[in-house]
């Protein structure tokens, strides 16, 4: 490729070190589609002949068919996917193949291929996200009235419904879909025609080429066109947030499925056993998702570090973008693919949840609200209820079965109706504020998410 300038061949180890085809071959389709659009633009502008364009397009189509059928294997002796395709094309159609690279550089060619590849993979991940949000929302609807302790600081706090808890994750992942859409929108501008860094002397039509490749426009600065990897970072940041959300839910699934909680049971298809302990049923899929979150974070940090000190324009360091972003894409896709059916087949143990909610004084806030609604300042009510909780702990009972005379010893505002006010069902039903845990509120959240998913 650069034989005219160099007097001897690249050292074999240096050649292998420099090569990227072992991982950038993933972009063969995007490279060929981009080259077809480039050839058509060159012919439209009269830069190459119509007959050469026909030969190039037909030759590239044949290469694509042969790769996908398995008739053509990648030549790992080529430096990258771009040179493999060009060399194979020239082998098949002769000199016309050598004209394809007119008015472009590998710098803008690889920037184009990566954008096209990530655009497709982001679409695949979006589909999986939508499916997962749907599964979580379905599970929430099934359990919209199931009472469970709500936690803060991993301590039982207030009664909520399990459906309400699950809908929090639906909302998080719905925002992830929006973040992904935004990232793709900013990414969807074509760098092709930027060439090495300064553009070209040929009368090209970058906008025609971009439109034919499904882009919303072109990058407006040729140096930026070949130097920018913001789009990789933004996608990887979005992937990291997705994984953070999956990891949080994984952590809760792991806790909920333990003997200490027994709130849920995962299907056998998404658990493993032990090689030595026959009783074990381990939530390994959730644990793996939790673990792989660190891997995706690492991919993002690796690329941020690679890019942080680079001068403009293209530098070979930027070859390091692909392995990191490809790994992040594949890891997120794998985790989402396993997560949706794991949620769908998860069995909820409502009785255990309810029994746990009956302990821990999680109706104490409602008892304070009871006094407040009868005219007592909240801080005074808070203190009295704290004293009542301490009394219950001392007597080894709960607020629900403390005698009325014990209540009246603290305040004459207490009446028989307090027991109804602090029942778990009432505590949940009373939380009517928008976004709260009442069944009606959860139903509104479910309806909102379903409407968003339709869009």
Provide key terms for this protein.
455 residues, mainly alpha, two-stranded antiparallel sheet, two-stranded parallel ribbon, 20 helices, 62% helix
Helix run count: 20
Main sheet characteristics = 2 strands, antiparallel
Global outline: elongated
Rounded mean pLDDT score: 95
Poorly predicted regions: none
Query: How many strands in all?
Result: 6
Taken in chain order, the helices and strands follow as: HHHHHHHEEHEHEHHEHHEHHHHHHH
The N- to C-terminal Cα distance equals 49 Å
The percentage of residues in β strands lies in: under 5%
Describe this structure in words.
The protein is built from 20 helices and 6 strands. With 455 residues, it is mainly alpha-helical. The strands form 3 sheets. It has a two-stranded antiparallel sheet with strand order 1-2. The chain has a two-stranded parallel ribbon with strand order 3-4. A two-stranded antiparallel ribbon has the order 5-6. The radius of gyration is 31 Å and the shape is elongated.
Short recap of the structure:
The protein has helices at residues 12-18, 21-24, 28-44, 50-69, 81-93, 95-98, 106-142, 162-187, 206-212, 222-227, 230-256, 284-307, 320-344, 350-357, 364-373, 378-395, 404-408, 418-421, 424-429, 439-454, and strands at residues 147-152, 155-161, 189-190, 217-218, 264-265, 347-348.
